[in-house]
Amino acid sequence: GIGGRLASIVPAAPQRLSGIHDVRVIAAGAHVFGAIDHAGTIRTWGLNADGGLGRPTLPMNAVPGPVAAAPPASRLAAGRGYMLALTQDGRLHAWGSNAAGQLGLGHLAPVATPQPVPSQAGIRSLAAGATHSLAVTNEGAVLAWGSNHHGQLGCDDVAYSAVPAPVRLPERVRAVAAGMHFSLAL
């Protein structure tokens, strides 16, 4: 995100992150990166394969650019070539790679611009694994979707889910985290 193709072992100062000021949220996935500023504007950079940056741009982007089609956001999660954004009013949007249904849109096609995830209101936090996604509702329930080849959706009866599905847990959840092929709930 600092405008060069060379790796850096020295942390970049915030003023070198072109176009990003007053960052409130950051997210890093496999080859996709994002930040949300004080106004809720999402800026992305990295590899734009399958629309993972959510904006029309070159395949490789070393400088952050705004995701114009996204409503103001409060949370951001990044997986392997895809992103999830929680809007300031609690709605979920997704874009990018979708081979396992990790966008939650009901299909397996990639999407190059932010799309609302159907009927998902009242989300308070989210997480993105390699090819699966998690969300916590305002009531403390967990929703999971995407790849389930290692049981990361919390069930053993499907290989994947292209729509958010409830996870049966013994109590309310405050937060979730997702790794490559696993999920955690607090």
Could you characterize what this model shows?
- With 186 residues, this protein is mainly β.
- It is 0% helix and 43% strand.
- The chain is built from no helices and 14 strands.
- It has strands spanning 23-28, 32-37, 42-47, 60-66, 73-78, 82-87, 92-96, 111-116, 123-128, 132-137, 142-147, 160-167, 176-178, 183-185.
- Strands 1-2-3-4 form a four-stranded antiparallel beta sheet, with no helix packed on it. A four-stranded antiparallel beta sheet has the order 5-6-7-8, with no helix packed on it.
- The relative contact order is 0.13.
- The mean pLDDT is 90.
Write the layout of secondary structure elements.
Elements: E1 23-28, E2 32-37, E3 42-47, E4 60-66, E5 73-78, E6 82-87, E7 92-96, E8 111-116, E9 123-128, E10 132-137, E11 142-147, E12 160-167, E13 176-178, E14 183-185
Antiparallel strand pairs: 1-2, 2-3, 3-4, 5-6, 6-7, 7-8, 9-10, 10-11, 11-12, 13-14
Low-confidence stretches: none
Radius of gyration, in Å, reads 16 Å
Strand count, sense and closure of the main sheet? Answer: 4 strands, antiparallel
Cα distance, first to last residue?
Answer: 31 Å
Number of strands: 14
Strand-residue fraction? Answer: 35-45%
- As laid out across the biggest beta sheet, the strand order is 1-2-3-4
Query: Mean pLDDT, as a whole number?
Result: 90
Count of separate DSSP helical elements? 0
Shape: globular
